[in-house]
Amino acid sequence: MSAIRALSASARRLRKPVGVASTALAVAACVSAEVPYRPLASGEQVYRQVCMACHATGVENAPRLGDRQAWKPLVDEGQDTLTAHAWVGVRGMPARGGQPGLSLEEFARATAYMARAAGGDWQDPDADMLAEIEEEIAERLASLTQGK
Ligand code: HEC
Q1: What class has domain 43-145?
Q2: Average pLDDT, whole number, for the chain?
């Protein structure tokens, strides 16, 4: 079956005129010719979608949002170290917050958002900070596989 016939067959199934479907295809072709782009979620958005499930109420002793006492020693570890350890996972804290689709940058934004909520002076990570976090992740993974 030719592409056009397949298209008109599926358009019939959808009860839409073929013109609409081919316009949509043309638009899709245009978009995919450009650099793939997905806007990153903000720290607060990621917190609400992923982290809040545990960090709002303190599931399994997760440090709660805005709990300065719980976050103080964590914030003192430094943004690169803490973000890396949480990304890799620690005890009840699942790697990547249990969301494999989350980018490191989004995860780091969510961590910074929680640090700020507890009085920490952390910004969304720039390229330098992301590189430092990646270094810490590599070290953490190496020490875990060596059983240290
Ligand atoms: C399934 C529950 C759960 C989810 C979802 C979750 N966390 Fe956690 N998180 C925990 C628990 C439990 C701890 C405490 C771990 C410990 O120290 O025993 C924790 C600890 C942390 C810590 C401190 C790590 C350390 O080194 O002590 C950070 C930072 C953190 N989480 C960030 C996040 C971020 C960011 C998200 C969302 C992207 C997230 N968490 C989602 C359960 C969760």
Answers
A1: mainly alpha
A2: 84
